[in-house]
Every structure is written in C-alpha cells, then in structure tokens.
Amino acid sequence: MEISTESLAFSRRARLLAESATMRVSRRAGELKAAGRDIIDLSAGQPDFPSPSVAVEAAREALAAGFTRYTAAAGLPDLRRALADRYAEGFGAPWETDNVIVTVGAKAALFELIQALVDDGDEVVIPSPCWVSFEEQVRFAGGNPITVPMSAADGFTIHAEPLIGAFSDRTRLVLVNSPCNPTGGVIGAADLRRLAEACAERGAILLCDETYERFVYDGVEHAGAAALARDFPVSVVVVGSFSKTYSMTGWRLGWAAGDRRIIRKVLEIQSHATSNPTSFAMVGALAALRQGEPDVQAMLAAFAERRRAVVDALKAIPGVDCRPPAGAFYAFPRVSSYLEDPGEGRGGGSLELAEYLLEEAGVAVVPGVAFGADPHLRLAFACSVEDLETGIQRIGEALGRYGRSR
Ligand SMILES: Cc1ncc(COP(=O)(O)O)c(C=O)c1O
User: 179: Cβ below 6 Å to ligand 1?
Assistant: First the structure.
C-alpha cells in the first residue's frame, strides 16, 4: 500500500522551510510569459549579461578535453589558490589554498558554514532587511535568527552598534551581507572592524557575505572583511560568489575563506553533501578570475547607468520614496503610501501589491515582505534602460489605479 498524501511526513527541519517569495514571483512571471503576456521581469536577482567569453571558452575546452571526473571535494587547488592570492594581494589576508573552499554557489558556502557553526538554540544576529535564505538556513540548522532593523533614513547603512546591542550569551554568528540584497546598503570599514572586535571578544564568528562586493557606486568603497583577517584570523569568515560578479549564476560556483579549521569542517560537510562543484565549470571560473575584469567593469558601468534611470523614474511616481542604493543592483523603494488602507477589500501588504503589479502592469517585482520589510518593493536593474523605464512607467500608471477608493 502506498503512503497516503495525509500521512506523508516531512522532517521537523524541512517543515520549517517555506518556498522563497522571490522564487514564487519569478515562477508566476514565467507562467504569464509562457501564456503570451508581455512581462517585464524586474524580480530576478541575476545580471542579464553573458558570462565572460574567457570563462565560456576555458570551460568548453576543459569539457572537450574530458575534464569531467570528480575533483578534490574542496574544488580545484588552482582555483582555491587563485582566490587566496586575490585576498592576500587585495586585502593583505594571510590566506593560502587551505583557507579557501570552492562551493556550489555562495548559497552552499553559507549553508555549510551555518551547519558547521550553529547548534540548536544558538543565535545568529542579522541586519535586516536581509536576503531570503539567511533566516531559513539558520532555522534549518536549529538556530534562532535575530534580525536587527537598519534604517531606511540613511539608505540602510549597516551599523555595528545596534547589532552588538542584540548580542546575548547564545550569539554564535553575526551574518553581514554588504552590499546588501535587497537594500543596497553597505557597512563601512570602521563599523566592520568594531563588529569583528565585538565578535572576537564574545567568541562569535563574523560571517560576511560579499556576493555583491564588486557592485558599489558613486565612489562608495566596499569594505572587504578579508582586510581584518590578519587581526581576527579565526573570527572573520568571508563568502563570495562567481554568480553576480561574473554573471555566472547558472554555473553554481562560490567559495568560503577563513580559518583553515573552519574551512576543513565545511569541507567535511561538503564531502557528504555535494562533493566537488562541477569540474569544468571551475576551469571556466578560474579563467574569469584571471581575465574577466573587463567584463566586470562593463557590467558595473551598465549598472551605474541603470541605477540612475531606475531611481529617477521611481522618484517621479507620487508616493514612492527611493534612495539610490550604495551597492548591489536593486532599487528598494518605499511604497507604504499605497499599502496603508488601499481600500477595495485589499489586504494592503507588499505581497498583494506585487501580485497586482504583475497581473495589472505586467511587471514582476519582489514584495519587501520577503525580506522582512513590508513597506518596500525590490526591483532588480537586470534589464535594459528602455525596459526599466517602460516597466516603471507601467508601475506608476498601475499604482495610480491601485485601490482607487482610497
Ligand atoms: C546576498 C546573497 N547571498 C548569496 C546568494 C547566492 O548566490 P549564489 O548564486 O552564489 O549561490 C545570493 C543570490 O541571490 C544573494 O543575494
């Protein structure tokens, strides 16, 4: 007899997880597109550029040459070495090959690190709004995410003091994503050092997700946590990704760098979870790291132009408040005036507004509630300036009709 739907039981851990709202909006946008609707997708958190041709060529050659077997579970030694060198040269980090592991995206690096470090009941302090997977990954490990709100008034700049104020005896990790998805907010070098000091004093780990490290604007400097690795060799751990920097999202490659005992533990987990990331993809990533800088610069220039266009267009919509993000490639406008009492029986949350904009305006955006910030929407600038302007114009028109009875 087959298990009935009612008695199919999932684990306690799995029951804690819900599908991410970002995925849900993307899926609905995909369905509407497949049905022939003209949809402008501003929901996807991925650059719309091709991967660097040097990476594509190198991976193609590796594949053709039969580089298709398992590699060491920690990834290609040459790639680990190249990443360690980059941190040593760029930030003075005393890191070598053993201080770096290549992972199946930054997502797997974060997952494995959190599994390695967080026990049942441990607390993980996270500036909020934050990326959708942080809290879920912490819960999956049995930990408690402690989100600490940053302020929209200064562009969601990440400050150390409120985070330190949330420390308790159970604090095990502080998880900082700078530049931040969804807000674009960054942490400054002084705050980062202050946080590292506070973590070290407490025996906590400062885990820095630097997935968007190369995308900062208007002279903002990315404060790389690797610069603290000499002073805090155990307590500072960095996660990075090829996904956004090199527009290689589908290649699924990221890394973690830090104390070699921590990296070793992550490797033990990885050896039972994914084993090595894809062999020939890592060959491509190495080429991107060595020769992909012109591609990064071209993307950065395009994002800077789009950022201006998006912010200007959003600011022109009555009741929408949008500051230029310091980094990443998302605008995070506040739309609360459309959420308070929208009338017509509407629930009034950002999820409902995002669904309305998708159905009515044919524009996919992510509701702020997905990131713990209901008064906001997230718009990725991962399409042409023309599409962005058309999309935002349509949003403006649809917002004008939203809850007419207000
Ligand atoms: C803040 C943040 N960290 C990590 C990731 C995951 O990146 P990857 O594709 O390397 O797994 C994302 C992807 O959206 C992200 O926004």
Answer: no
